[in-house]
Design brief:
Layout: H1 5-10, H2 15-21, H3 33-42, H4 44-58, H5 68-87, H6 97-118, H7 126-131, H8 138-164, H9 176-200, H10 204-217, H11 225-229, H12 236-243, H13 246-258, H14 260-263, H15 271-291
């Protein structure tokens, strides 16, 4: 058969050209960001089902079962109250210290658990990652959804405890809803970022408890940043850094919404903007950074 130069130019001459001519793509190749978002939205039922299954299985072998979601932060709050409130007298100058402490512990439990669990979201599910094709972001997001489900349960218990300690329900309690949503977006972004790091360097999960413990102490969970540091005892930038720390910001927003004594002191107007900024930075930044390594997860 005789071919002309024009025929040779039109016909695909390499496997790559032949695949492109028939619309074939590389298996596991990273999709565009817009397509990735659409694929992730299409897997939303998998995300919620996976999160619910993890939540049900977490304490399936314990006698108290799902009650441990509530018992654990309560036990932590009891220990912190004795050590910080009684021994170290961190309760001095803090109105409604028990509600103050309980709110901080419950909120921090969600933030710290989200970041810590994110480090194992990919590496701990390598069998699933290697066996099935789906947006890998589903896994760290499912972890945060699971923890957010737990948080909603514990927040219901927290409201009952606050009433028992004499807090008055007001319209300000509704501010807890946007605060929780902003915090959830922030934690999802952090979990995505940590999932990429943990997938590449699994040993980071061993380091996280020390990092998170330091972050917790710097976030005013058990003590008031203003009361303990004061405005003149440390440089202004130290106080500013502590108060704009994202965990401290979200904890302050929940305390302002739920606690009478905390609401007596007006929050600076920029706090909501800072909370939204952290959610946007972590949520969008963490998602895009995770997506950029999509084709690398499960290799090696």
């Amino acid at each position: 058969m005789i071919t002309t130069p024009l025929d040779r130019q039109a016909a695909p001459r390499t496997p790559a050209e032949l695949a492109a001519a028939h619309g074939l793509t590389v298996s596991g190749a990273r999709p565009s960001l817009s397509r990735y978002v659409r694929d992730l939205w299409g897997r939303r039922h998998f995300v919620t089902a996976f999160a619910t299954a993890r939540m049900a299985a977490q304490y399936s072998g314990a006698r108290l079962g799902q009650l441990w979601h509530l018992v654990t932060p309560l036990l932590n709050a009891f220990v912190y109250f004795f050590v910080f409130g009684v021994v170290m007298k961190a309760s001095h100058g803090v109105p409604d210290y028990l509600p103050f402490l309980l709110t901080g512990v419950f909120v921090w439990d969600f933030i710290g658990s989200s970041v810590n669990a994110g480090t194992r979201a990919i590496h701990g599910n390598l069998g699933l990652v290697r066996a099935l094709h789906f947006p890998r972001a589903s896994l760290p997001i499912a972890v945060v959804v699971q923890l957010f489900q737990q948080l909603l349960v514990t927040m219901g218990a927290l409201l009952i405890l606050l009433l028992a300690f004499g807090q008055t329900p007001t319209a300000a309690w509704l501010l807890a809803v946007p605060a929780l949503l902003l915090m959830a977006v922030f934690c999802a972004g952090c979990a995505l970022a940590m999932a990429r790091i943990g997938a590449k360097t699994p040993d980071v999960s061993q380091l996280m408890p020390f990092v998170l413990r330091t972050w917790m102490y710097a976030s005013g969970v058990m003590w008031s940043i203003d009361t303990m540091l004061g405005k003149d005892r440390f440089p202004h930038w130290v106080l500013l850094a502590l108060k704009t720390n994202p965990a401290a910001v979200y904890i302050d927003l929940l305390r302002f919404a739920l606690i009478d004594g905390f609401r007596a002191h007006n929050l600076p107007p920029h706090v909501w903007a800072v909370a939204a900024g952290w959610a946007l930075l972590a949520g969008v930044g963490g998602f895009v950074w995770f997506w950029k390594a999509e084709e690398e997860y499960g290799r090696g």
